[in-house]
């Protein structure tokens, strides 16, 4: 799996992911610290949510939202 040097304090190496969270290995996604985002709880959790939405969307074959539609 492709890696690159980390930019955050004490994070030596991270996975090389694209904007969606995909690694170079088919079917392997990454989020949070290992994906190189800023190491704060709210950011890593948000990144996990972002990548989860992308995984669900790819599995479903269409963009996923779980919002209720306004009527
Ligand atoms: C001492 C300390 C204090 C902190 N204080 C703050 C703070 O005050 N405010 C703040 O916003 N952030 C704080 N942080 C940062 C915050 O905790 C992290 O940014 C956040 O938890 C990262 O979430 P993550 O999901 O990316 O990684 P992690 O929470 O590290 O989750 C990775 C998970 O993967 C698991 N894992 C690892 N290897 C494997 C494997 N091979 N197979 C299966 N599972 C594996 C680990 O056990 C772990 O549960 C602090 C961090 C530390 C260490």
Automatic annotation (TrEMBL):
InterPro entries documented for this protein: FAD/NAD-bd_sf (IPR036188)
SUPFAM superfamilies per record: FAD/NAD(P)-binding domain
The protein's name in its UniProt record: Pyridine nucleotide-disulfide oxidoreductase
